């Protein structure tokens, strides 16, 4: 999590959180770049925390197969969903620099896909 905090602090230095109209274009580009670089670790760090909590609950599930099965399903969903989110951030634009530098030539996925997957990933089952 320290890595994520450092990366977000760098993005804040360049103006993350301020209205883009008040920023120098180069600072705006750097703020967005460092925010995108921070996102994968900010997604995976809580994922590992939720997985470890579910694994701890396995110790208290007793011999009940149904409770253990539910916890294993939750662990599986956490790994799959958040890994996909991590991967989608990295592959949504080609070249990846297009995420923050709109002057480059390339293509990005439709924003609707990102929106819908964001809704799904934010609403998935949590332990």
Structure overview:
The structure is a single chain. By secondary structure, this protein is mostly helical. It has one domain. The chain is built from 4 helices and 2 strands, in the order H-H-H-E-E-H. It has helices spanning 2-13, 25-60, 65-91, 111-122, and strands spanning 93-94, 107-108. A two-stranded antiparallel sheet has the order 1-2. The model has no long low-confidence stretch (mean pLDDT 87).
Relevant terms:
mainly alpha, 69% helix, 2 strands
Structural class: mainly alpha
Helix segment tally: 4
What is the gyration radius calculated from CA atoms?
18 Å
Q: Determine the mean pLDDT.
A: 87
Oligomer: single chain
Largest sheet report: 2 strands, antiparallel
Number of domains: 1
Low-confidence stretches: none
Widest beta sheet: strand line-up: 1-2
Q: Assess the beta-strand content as a share of residues.
A: under 5%
| Gap between N and C termini | 20 Å
Count of strand segments: 2
Which helices and strands, and how do they pair?
Blueprint: H1 2-13, H2 25-60, H3 65-91, E1 93-94, E2 107-108, H4 111-122
Antiparallel strand pairs: 1-2
In short:
The chain has 127 residues and is mainly alpha-helical.
